[in-house]
Amino acid sequence: MNCLKRAYYHTIRKKGKTVLLFTVLLIMATLMLTCLSIYSATDDAARDVRKSLMGSFTINAKQLNTGLGADVVQEVLTIEGVTDNYVLRSYTQATFKSENGSLMKITTQGAANIPEGYENAGKIVGNSYSEKDSYFTEAGFELIQGEAITPEQKQAAIIHKDFADSNSLEVGDYFTLENVIDGKKSVRVQVVGIFTSNSPQDAIGVAPSYDLYQNVVFTDIKTCSQLIYGTSVEGSQYGDFYAEDPEKLPELIEKTKLITGMDWDNCIITKYDKDYQNAKAALTSLQNIVVIAIVVIAIVSVLILTLILVLWIRNRVYEIGVFLAMGITKANILLQQIFEVIIAAVPAFLISYGTSKIIAQMVTDRLIQGLSEDLSVSVSITPIGFAIVSGIGLALAMFATALSAYPIMRAKPKNILTQIN
User: Fold this and answer.
1) How high is the pLDDT of residue 4?
2) Domain that holds residue 104
3) Using CA atoms, how far apart are residues 361 and 312, in angstroms rounded to an integer?
4) 238, 272, 306: which is the final residue of a domain?
5) Residue 374: burial class (beta carbons within 10 Å; 0-12, 13-18, 19+)
6) Same structural domain for residues 301 and 218?
7) Closest CA to 153 of 130, 184, 182
8) Three-state SS for 150?
9) Beta-bridge mates of residue 156
């Protein structure tokens, strides 16, 4: 009778032993497959996070005489890894004048003070994409008439509803913005949109009159540039650029500094990747936990299997002695014991595919909840992962079998037979 048949009959005859071995292997395979699936899922999540949480960097050129030029902006956008998505911003104050040259009304109620020379002035926010400005994304501003400002528009303005009502302005009307300090810097603009503020201003009673929401006017970048620099050259104080991969932000910033024609010593470049770094840290922590868990599970599984098999093999000394007396080699006897473990392992591993699916997502959600509330990881059991765990599991089981049988296998047949007697 060959070793495979002997292994089969032994597992049938020793049902209790087989069930115990099956249970241990099932638990081991389930835990390892769960951990491997979580690790693989976090790896995929890390790649998704790098794509979804695009890091950005801001060039602060406020100290330069002409700001951040349009030619430099185009060069930054040609850097590999920088997306086409960008925002140019500038901020100043201007006096409002009607078409006939008269001063226009502003809101002063709630202002901490009305600075001299600013009695009819407001805050000018130049933005290449007004809808992306923090006033609209965070402060509760909402466009209720007209259209948002885009890079294609020139001499365009979006005004507050209260300012429009106070000065009888509608979409399509014109008025003039004039630099408060230098009246020669002025631009005639057309109202292309009207907005309202849905959230109360936090700085009421603290902000000067020109900073009140009702006195804020949004313009295109070129208009704001003319008010600040007094030139026809389009310049901006700030430029926000976005990276395809936040991991490469430092590299992109260094490449940006190599662009000629800019006084980079007087510019400040700030990177923004906090959300990505937080998500990355959470995923890295989870992966570290999973790696430690896999190692611990492997070691504990080998120890438990070895202990169980050592206890069993001590009760099989007589059986081994008989086989040796029959001329069966030690290698053949060891192979039988390995087949006994494999017979229990195969169904255990197959069932672990289903049990892992049940607990993997649940365990991941618990771990993620403890690391980050804003992160989600979708776990799935892949055939490749199952094959890897099955291979590792079989290798560990065979190693434990060989380790437990080593003391008997290295003994001489004569000593084994003597021990039986």
Assistant:
1) 72
2) 56-272
3) 37
4) 272
5) exposed
6) no
7) 130
8) coil
9) 190
Q: How far apart are CA 350 and CA 226, in angstroms?
A: 72
Question: Which comes out higher in pLDDT, residue 232 or 243?
Answer: 243
User: In terms of pTM, does the model score above 0.85?
Assistant: no
pLDDT above 90 as % of the chain: 40
Tell me the mean pLDDT in the region 83-106: 94
Structurally, how many domains does the chain consist of? 2
Spatial distance between the Cα atoms of 299 and 314, rounded to a whole number of angstroms = 23
Lowest mean pLDDT among 38-42, 278-282, 405-409: 405-409
pLDDT for 135 equals 92
Which of the listed residues 220, 244, 272 is the one where a domain comes to its end? 272
Q: Which helix (H) or strand (E) holds 196?
A: strand 186-197
- 217 plus 72 within the same structural domain: yes
Q: Are 141 and 151 in contact (CB under 8 A)?
A: no
Query: Which segment, 130-139, 169-178, 288-297, 352-361, is predicted with the most confidence on average?
Result: 169-178
Locate 403 and state its tokens.
């380790």
Q: Are 17 and 319 in contact (CB under 8 A)?
A: no
One domain, residues 23 and 64: no
Are 268 and 127 within one domain? yes
Does 13 share its domain with 100? no
Question: What are the CA-CA distances from residue 217 to residues 124, 153, 161, 207 (Å)?
Answer: 5, 15, 11, 16
